[in-house]
Specification:
Length: 405
């Protein structure tokens, strides 16, 4: 499809400098009508101003959507059932938001009769891959326009010059401008660029938005109880709570305890290493608590198999394959394992730490006090059986040692 054949484009639109320039650039370079789509996925900023900006540019079809519940329920919660973490540290806050945005982009394209979709991801990052893999998986024939791979506006100065030349009104925030590139949703906020491009440089304290410094957190620990049903949190301190509210509540509580900061150098899918800092208060608590409830409700081999498959599952999400058949297959297995993951976890939050101090399941616990006790188990376990068990498992070791002699 050539430029002239593109009549209408759905743009993932934030109302900021990049996407405001992209909006005008699409009209000028493709001669097409633009539909804007702005999603509220819990980034903590008002999204409605994007409507006024789009209207000011003459946009007729404007989509502003509150997707917080769908994001938490259908994307974040399924991911945490797998205890997902990329390269041992990253809780995938940016990665898991992209499948939902891709889904709505192509759905809106179908609803409005658009020929193409467009996004503001750069040609160096992972997001271009995530957006586009998702779009192609859901709408195979969709055309994707990625301006950062086409234009020469490769600096903020050039973007500002373009905006001024074309009468694009870009609001300048008062006070000190953040030197970081940031992305936020209800799972996390990320920081890249600025001094973070030096992996030896410590982040400035005033960079962090959601968490206070652990040193400044309260001297008194905070206790919290989470209730699980089929692997998902359904209540906090016995108050029934929706997935989105779970995220909002845990972000606030854990952030006040200095929990959730991470400083990572990760391997991007496109081949380079990248240093980023993340605040994931709710996710940090959720990962610790979910493993705790699984520890008493999952069979040993099921738990171990999940742990073996998790890195592959994490890579699929990180690399943009949420809508792939292999991720869906893994999800079915993961979800099946969660049918018995029911009960409560009690946590102690203190100065940046999440400590599990209790876990119980009235219906599905596999923990048997009569067997595990160091006291008299009244015949529940015959300790003499251990001798044969050990000798059988030692057989190959003994044979190998004898051969060496």
């Amino acid at each position: 499809m050539s430029k002239g054949e593109v009549r209408k484009v759905v743009l993932a639109y934030s109302g900021g400098l990049d996407t405001s320039v992209i909006l005008k650039w699409l009209e000028d370079n493709y001669g097409c009508e633009v539909v804007t789509f702005t999603a509220d996925i819990g980034q903590g900023e008002e999204v409605e101003p994007a409507r006024a900006k789009a209207e000011a540019y003459g946009i007729k079809e404007i989509y502003i959507e509150d997707l917080r519940e769908e994001f938490a329920r259908d994307f974040v919660f399924p991911m945490f059932r797998a205890n997902t973490i990329y390269e041992g540290e990253y809780l995938l806050g940016t990665s898991i938001a992209r499948p939902l945005i891709s889904k709505r982009l192509v759905e809106i394209a179908a609803e409005t009769g658009a020929d193409a979709i467009s996004h503001g991801a750069t040609g160096k990052g992972n997001d271009q891959v995530r957006f586009e893999l998702g779009a192609y998986a859901l709408m195979p024939d969709v055309k994707v326009i990625a301006p950062w791979r086409e234009w020469d506006l490769n600096s903020r100065e050039k973007l500002m010059d373009y905006a001024e030349k074309h009468g694009i009104n870009v609001e300048q925030k008062r006070g000190k401008k953040s030197p970081y590139s940031m992305d936020a949703n209800s799972l996390h906020i990320s920081y890249e660029g600025g001094i973070l491009e030096d992996p030896w440089a410590e982040p400035e304290e005033d960079m962090w938005r959601w968490t206070i410094s652990p040193e400044k957190a309260a001297d008194k620990p905070l206790y919290l109880e989470l209730t699980y049903e089929r692997g998902d949190i359904v209540a906090i301190d016995d108050v029934a709570t929706s997935p989105a509210v779970v995220m909002e509540t845990l972000n606030r509580i854990a952030g006040e305890c200095g929990i959730g900061r991470d400083d990572i150098v990760e391997n991007r899918y496109v081949g380079m290493k990248s240093r980023g800092c993340y605040e994931t208060p709710a996710g940090t608590v959720m990962l610790k608590a979910h493993r705790a409830i699984e520890s008493i409700t999952l069979d040993r081999e099921v738990a171990h198999l999940k742990d073996e498959l998790m890195p592959r599952y994490a890579s699929l999400i990180y690399n943009g394959y949420w809508w792939s058949p292999e991720r869906k297959m893994l999800q079915e297995m993961i979800d099946a394992s969660q049918q018995t993951v029911n009960g409560k976890v009690r946590l102690k939050l203190y100065k940046g730490n999440v400590m599990v101090v209790g876990r119980k399941s009235d219906t599905d616990s596999l923990f048997d006090e009569n067997i595990a006790t160091f006291e008299d188990d009244q015949g529940a376990y015959d300790q003499k059986d251990a001798e044969g068990f050990i000798k059988l498992n030692a057989l190959r070791l003994r044979i190998s040692a004898m051969k060496k002699d």
